[in-house]
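User: Fold this one for me? It's Dimethyl sulfoxide reductase.
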Amino acid sequence: MSKRILNVVTNVGHYDDPSHKTGLWLSELTHAWHVFEEAGYEQVLVSPQGGASPLEPRSLKFPNYDKTAKAWHADPAKMALLENTLSPDDIDSADFDAIFFTGGHAVMYDFPGSEGLQRISRELYERGDIVSSVCHGYCGLLDTTLSNGEYLIKGRNMTGFAWQEEVLARVDKLVPYNAEERCKERGASYQKAKLPFVSYTVVDGNLITGQNPGSAKATAQKVAAALR
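Assistant: Here's what I get for Dimethyl sulfoxide reductase.
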């Protein structure tokens, strides 16, 4: 049986101010997808609402718009996958070996409140399967509780997009909350690289997280290694 990965993407296309567009950070999906594809794993796309996942405009510009992102963007079949994502209600967690939350600032809005995604994450995690995220994808884990009522991330070592990176990206005034701070409030041991925007991953048992867009490939490689 081939291992199966559930990749999570957003349905949100803008910040609170509709004139400021956001969405899926494409390379965070494509880098991971490529790693998982090379490993021979089956992959499925899910989003909080199902249906279309808009793309973050900044992820389609240099230097973020790299070979894998361009190839995906130019492939009608791949783009169709992002137009027709499944909803959590369509997903039986028993069919999957890992969940991978992608990022983009949009996920700050629709990942945390998704009870369906929380259910899938909880079931995978409590079975000992892999729960993973990159960049803002960790927002999908902030409100997830286990069967005992405690936060999934409580007491766990993890990372995600740092507040310092929000400031340097000049979106600290646009984002709805400070994800790093909220992560710490949930009892997680938040860690980050010494320098912003460099690849950084944290593995704590079956919780695997990456800090920023540049960490997507390394995070996926850690997930693939854990699945082997």
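One thing worth pointing out: The chain has one domain: 4-227.
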